[in-house]
Structures are given as C-alpha cells and as structure tokens.
Amino acid sequence: MGVAMTSGSGVGRDLVGYLTGYPQEVAFGDEEAADVFDRYHVPAFEMFNDGVRLDRDQLIAHMRPARKNATSVHVDVHEALTTGDRVAASYTLTAVLRKGRTVTTEIYMFGHLAGDGRLRRVDQITRNVPTESQ
After folding, report:
1. I want to staple 104 with a disulfide (CB 3.0 to 4.6 A). Which of 40, 46, 64, 94 is the partner?
2. For 45-81, b where at least 16 C-beta lie within 10 A, e where not — what string?
3. In what residue span(s) does the SnoaL-like domain sit (predicted)?
C-alpha cells in the first residue's frame, strides 16, 4: 500500500510517496474515494489536465469506474522536485484493466501546495504511450 499522509506531513514533503501511493489508495484502498482525495487535496482543488479543468467532484466521479476497472496500477517516477509551495514531476503511470488492456501514460505535472501541504492546483500534460496490447 502507498504512503498515507498524516498530520504535519504533506505532498510537498513526500512527492514521490504521493505519486506512487495515491493511485494505489484510490484504486484498491478500503476507504471511500472522497476520503482519500481529501487527505491529499484541498476542497477547492483544481486540476487542468491537457487544458481541461477538473474539480474535486469531477475527479472523484472519475475514480469510481477506475476502482472497478483496474486490476493493477504502477507509477515510475522519473523526476520529482519540491521548492516552497511548488511541486513538479515527470512520471509514467501504467494501469492494467480487467479485460487485459494495458494503458500507459507519461505525465508531466506542475502543482501548487496549500499551507497545510495538500495540493491546491495541478497543471499537467499527458501523452498515451503505445503498448503491445494496443
């Protein structure tokens, strides 16, 4: 299981732990998706993924099907940087779906942290990586 953030910690203190642990917790954890989300993100969190704005409710709605469809998720962090209230990372996320399809995505993420260490905004650019099953 991934690294859980506790009081006094935050995404900025363990960016690699967040990047690798959060997808595991969301997809395979016992907690409600909203509870996992709220541990790492402020209520007014915004993500801009390839220019498309997603808020908390939209992201949580996206997680529900992921919990049903994914059989495994792996994150390979290539670079991670934290400075002040900013984080940045490049990583590859690979998900294996129930029907056997593998989806691999390169992600370049730039984020802003809230005062409590949770993410308040993320801008990211993604690229699907062709796999043998595609």
Report:
1. 94
2. bbbebeeeebebeebbeebeebeeebeebebebeebe
3. 47-121
Query: Distance of CA 107 to CAs 9, 43, 99, 128, Å?
Result: 24, 23, 24, 9
Can you give the residue ranges of every domain in the chain?
11-129
> What confidence tens digit (pLDDT) does each residue in 83-93 have?
999 999 999 99
Answer whether 26's CB lies under 8 Å from 33's CB.
yes
Given this model, what pLDDT does residue 133 score? Answer: 52
Find out whether 82 and 15 touch, Cβ atoms under 8 Å: yes
Predicted TM-score (pTM) of this structure: 0.87
Euclidean distance between CA atoms 60 and 67, whole angstroms: 11
d(CA 56, CA 70): 21
